[in-house]
Amino acid sequence: MIEPDRLRGLIRAVYDGGEYSSELDRCVLEICEGCLSAKRTRHYYGDAVTDDILSDAHVNCSLAILERKVDLAYNPFSYLTRIAMTTLAGKCRSQNARARDLKEYVESVYDEQYTKEETEDI
Fold it and tell me: What is the mean pLDDT of residues 89-94?
């Protein structure tokens, strides 16, 4: 479990000129994994896509910290969770669009092949 005060302290250390610590990285990764498990994406999309989503969410959260976009006056856990969920939603939309496009393409090829065979039979 991630304590907001501990997370805030780790981020403050980065803002004060310190390095991005491995403990902070583990916290960010834990937040991203929690978002993915809450949405059951691994079950729905499979391991490869879920690992891609996890890496994108991890990078986006880490960049937000390194670019000083996390406001320490508020709970940083909430902000990082929002970034991870936004990444998750965007990737899910793009995966659904790819699946829809593939289905439409397969149907069009099938329809074209089927009508071609019908005209040859006549």
Answer: 85
